[in-house]
Amino acid sequence: MQYKLFMGNQAYSSWSLRGWLLLKAFGFDFEYEVVPLFSPEWERFKAAHFPAATVPTLQVYDDSARFFVWDSLAIAEFLHEQDPGAGIWPDGLQARAAARTLCAEMHSSFFALRANMPMNVRREFRTVTPDAETRADIDRIEDLWAWVRSTGTGAGPYLFGERLCAADAFFAPVASRFRTYRVALRPESQGYVDALLEHPATLEFYAAGRRESWIIEKVEFDQA
Predict the structure, then answer these.
(1) In Å, how far from its chain's centre is CA 137?
(2) For residue 223, what pLDDT band results from cuts at 50, 70 and 90?
(3) Measured between alpha carbons, how far is 157 from 90 in angstroms, rounded to an integer?
(4) Spatial contact of 116 and 183, defined as CB atoms under 8 Å apart
(5) Any idea which architecture 89-206 has in CATH?
(6) Residue 154: CB partners within 8 Å, gap ≥ 6?
(7) What is the mean pLDDT of residues 100-124?
């Protein structure tokens, strides 16, 4: 089976970081292509890969068949099905249930954080102050991280122990936002953010994003 991952701009595309980590950090062999968002290439991509209309999209070649899996949560489950031993979900029934629940909440919530603190790996904004709704999202995320650690599902730098799992891949874009906007965090939360952003696969994604020449002006605001 062969894989090709389509991603948006690595400087800005938070969900693409999830897809990248789900493949890169778990040892899958894959090709990838970056499709600049909100561009003619983006429109051509959507037309050519219908019904996929988002990134990340995983193109799968299986013998003579070709099909697409889009949406990061679907990609996580698909890859786990192909290689259950890769570690995409943690060991243990309780841990797997918690990890899936965290991924689902991250996937469907935190709208204020997404809107007011868009991902941008090339910048650090010095004077952005979260509004009340964004602060509530941040507090909820930190509470979730603390709750996982309180359940004793694993000791280590990541949520469920020494190894990255899908839940960490889903929170990596949040960690990126926290660094970009210099969000003040609890010490345990800051340590977790640092671990996510120092993972080799995250560093590789960051480096590629910083080399990109594409600009999305609405994300390049600076309040300093």
Answers:
(1) 17
(2) very low
(3) 14
(4) no
(5) Up-down Bundle (1.20)
(6) 90, 95, 160, 161, 162
(7) 95
